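Reviewers asked in the last cycle whether our approach scales beyond single polypeptides. To address this, we selected a multi-component target totalling 762 residues and predicted its structure end to end. The input consisted of the following lines:
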Amino acid sequence: MISKFMAPEIIFGDHSIQQTGESFLRLGAQRVLVVSDPGVKEAGWTAEAVESIQTSGLDYHLFSNISTNPDTAQVAEGAAAYHKARCDAVLGIGGGSALDVAKAVAVIVSNGGKIENYEGVDHIHSPLPPVIMVPTTAGSGSEVSQFSIIVDPARKKKMTIVSKSLVPDIAIVDPFVLMTKDHLLTAATGLDAITHGIEAYVSAAATPLTDVQAVNAMKLAAEFLRPSVASHTNVEAKRAMAMASMQAGLAFSNAILGAVHAMSHAIGGRYALPHGEINSILLPHVMEFNLIASPSRFAAIGDIFGASAGGEEMVRARHGIQAVRALADDIGAPKTLHSVGLRDPDFESMARIALEDACMITNPRDVALKDIEMLFKKAYE
Amino acid sequence: MISKFMAPEIIFGDHSIQQTGESFLRLGAQRVLVVSDPGVKEAGWTAEAVESIQTSGLDYHLFSNISTNPDTAQVAEGAAAYHKARCDAVLGIGGGSALDVAKAVAVIVSNGGKIENYEGVDHIHSPLPPVIMVPTTAGSGSEVSQFSIIVDPARKKKMTIVSKSLVPDIAIVDPFVLMTKDHLLTAATGLDAITHGIEAYVSAAATPLTDVQAVNAMKLAAEFLRPSVASHTNVEAKRAMAMASMQAGLAFSNAILGAVHAMSHAIGGRYALPHGEINSILLPHVMEFNLIASPSRFAAIGDIFGASAGGEEMVRARHGIQAVRALADDIGAPKTLHSVGLRDPDFESMARIALEDACMITNPRDVALKDIEMLFKKAYE
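The resulting structure, written as structure tokens, was:
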């Protein structure tokens, strides 16, 4: 088997956000479209990145009309802003939503058309303008991944766009930026990172290169997500979770994901629910379903999450699932789809959408429509 | 502390050499300068890469005047061949020597002047043409690194050239290519990879991102270097050593190295001795010297190389040094500089050169001139 691995240049560390301007200078940029979201702007991080851009003698234009589960209209609006302001580079600074919109805008301004044209794998052909990402949550991994997830409201669908071109030029990961997140966002995004690590590790496309990243991400999150949720100023925990999220991103960007994400995208296309929470609700159910596909890998996950004192493979594997559940409980994650506000769901039609999602291809266990419906129902209440 | 990490796109796997042409096509190349060495040419791998280039409809020109410890004249000759044949891309296929010349040629053809002008850190300013590397030994890690090492005969010196620009666009790592190496080359290059892993792991510039690569490289080499030396057809061992070498390359490219390499470069500038063998002779002496700089890291190395059944930190660390010695012994590595042909060495002047080498900066223990002389003498006989 031939495995491929791609990563952006990575700048990781305390206050690394201040290297944003210098990094754009190095990429030859002159005028940067800054794609951010209102929360990050309010926390002051957007201003800090902008200051760095200006200090380097570069110009910028701010676009911050970003919502959770961003859609095609926001991408079109961002692309229009890019052209109108005559930008030649893109900064994504924010959570996964802002980063994914920034990527999608970079696609449109260099490849033309609508973002819907690029849904699926490898449909981007022209090089993008210089793209730098500064994540402000430890969860999405979008700063290093070849993914962008955009909602198409017309089809009530989260589109998965996958292309090597979507790997940013530079990922600037600054743990200090995580200190302004509240405990709810820290928990939801941290569980998203754990889901990335676990799905990438058991993915049908996992390789030795993705395994080292996934295993380290899981180890860090197993140790540091609880303290990170507990204290917004615990620097050690923020550093660990920033690294965990990025390493999980490197893992899933190259090993792709599985049923949790395929199902989560199906929900997210219809309901404006937080991606991380949905994932963490679905995760243990999908783990139980997938267990027989790779007992040894699930046993290793059990060892990492610390529930096991040895025993045979299937015992360690089952303990692992309980340990992930316990971690989610400890940080106050919701347990059912009903509890986060899902009402009268049409699971059959969502299952059809999930079955077609690009992430389902690498799920380690064969999945039929009725399996997905069953998993949705288990997760519902 | 801010850490940076760079890696090329990686294509890893059996028969991946056949993706050479397609990869150049993707980078927009039309006529490739193929930089190779006589041994690799004879083994047939150069022809296999060339066939892939031609199958993709691209043209090529072959330059194969490469020796061990290649020098400035070979780089100039390669650059002249590139221009004369109107090439627009560079393939390095071979051991570390061929890859390092290929990189140096790419520097000259795009930046002008002589390769001597680019000695040291970050002196390359213009972008290089598309560069792809296919390593045929599991040792140098040059396929993923930001290093090129070229001998300057005028100064009897191995120049260390370090720049992000030297990270190739694509590294194609094909374990099958390793099957034509004899056991001596397998041992020497494998010990080079181990030295990279160890020096990067204890480097003053090590980061969590380089640690995961270094640790995995050491684990793989600890388990698979012996069987790889024992059998040229053991596919599992070749796969493991190809991965180990590449991961050690990712580690040292970003964490840099230490005294072993600084001293080895000083020897290699004057004597045409194999780099891997010199490294493996110096390694245990330097490990003993460096031990007190990082007992916990050397203890972890002890655990990886399997010599330890627990015990306190310094005991595990010392066992680790013995275990590395035992591994080198088992695969028939030479034990003294005298035994590999060094005669009447002027250790004082070589120590001066080693002290100035770029690799010495990240050695974990402070080093004085007399320390290096003492280490050279210990390694001599």
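Chain B has a mean pLDDT of 95. We regard this as preliminary and will revisit it once experimental data from Aim 1 are available.
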